[in-house]
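Standup notes, structure subgroup. Blocker cleared on the FE2/S2 (inorganic) cluster input:
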Amino acid sequence: MIPSSVPAPTPLTARTPPLSEPSGWHRIALTVNGEGVTAEVESRLLLSDFLRDRIGLTGTHVGCEHGVCGACTVLLDDEPVRTCLTLAVQCDGAAVRTVEGLAPGEAPLTPVQRAFHTCHGMQCGFCTPGFVMTATALTERSVRPDADEVADALSGHLCRCTGYRNIRRAVCQALDERFGE
Ligand code: FES
Ligand code: FES
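Run returned:
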C-alpha cells in the first residue's frame, strides 16, 4: 500500500545552500499504480529516488544512474521513461506505473510477465523491471510494433546476464499473445 501523503523529511541541519545547489520544495500530486499520492519534494529529487526511497517501491532498479542501462524504466502517462533522468516534480499531475503495479497482490501475471517466465527471459533479474515496463508499453499499443520498433525499444536496455535472446523471445511471445501471430 502506498502512503497517500508523504511528508517532507526534516532537514538534518539548517543551512543556506550554495548558489549552485537548486533549492525549493514543491507539492506534487500524481497517481502511482492507480493510487493517489501527494508529497512535498525538493526540486532536484529524481523520480527513481522518489519511488524507491519516499514511497517504498523498490521494484524500480537503479543501475547506471545516467540514462544508459534502462533498469530504472517506468511508464509515465503510458510512455517508458528513465526515472534516473526524470525529476519527481515533472510528474505532477501524471500517472506513473511501476513493475509493482502490473500484478499486485494475488492478481495473475500479465502476458509480458508470463512470457519472461516461460521464456526464461531473466537470470539475476536486475534489468528485468525495466525490460518488462518497456515491453508492456509495446503490448499496449493499438497496432503491433514491427521488428525494427521492437529492436529499437529494447536497444535502450542493458542486460549483463542473458545474452538477450530469451528476452527477445519473451517480448515476441507477449506481442503474439496480444496481437495474434
Ligand atoms: S539507472 Fe536509469 S538508465 Fe540506468
Ligand atoms: S538478468 Fe541479470 S542483468 Fe539482466
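Discussed briefly. The domain at 5-10+24-101 is CATH 3.10.20.30 (Ubiquitin-like (UB roll)).
Next: hand off to the docking folks.
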